[in-house]
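seq:
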Amino acid sequence: MFITVFGSSGCSYDRGNDTASFLINNSVIIDAGWNLVENILDLDLNPSDFKTILFTHFHQDHYLALPQFLFYFINSGKRLSELTLIGPGDLGRVVRLAADFLQLSRFFDDIGYPECIEIAPGESFSVGDLFVETHKSVHPVDGRYYKITDKISNKTAGFSGDTAYSEDESAFFSGCDLLVHECSLGGSYTGDNFYLHSSAEDAAAAANGAGVKKLALAHYREKQRAECIAAAKNKFDGDILTPLKGDIIYV
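struct:
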């Protein structure tokens, strides 16, 4: 099982990186970031080969590239009905808005429409050789944690999406080999968490409680990298990664 990093920055990406977006086993995309098509092409891969996108939630930095991805897919001669988009309850509305923005009904005939699967917390499903479990995240909009197991290798990776720290995380991510966790609040944070995000200390506490082997920090600004690593080390003794665009994490 391997995770290719499309980006790991905060909501406004850093040069040479993108916002948090990932690819599992060259098969399933998690979140679309700002520049999904470019990120895929930069890896010498074909964006139109990918048929499944999993969304953690629908704040703009996690779906901004959806219209460009759909447009690229159509212009590659593919029908949108070949796509499966999966996420929490705002999925259908966001896809409709993307279709309206592209004026699909005006400019294209017989391209179909993506299959949109809205996942309730606690539901599980399979995508090819991947088994996906879900849990509700703690965020101002409806969001999901994902726990994804490769059925062949039996390796498991967890993805927090954007979330405030919750003790539920440790139970849900228990046994994961890798946890990819946001730390938008930097190394540590004690102020008003109005936007419901996590610090690196929160991410480390979740990883430690879950007994994971590796923690990959994401969704932070480059200038926060050193403080995030230092803070995470205070609460987690396993491997701490701060991956950038183009990096591959072997689970």
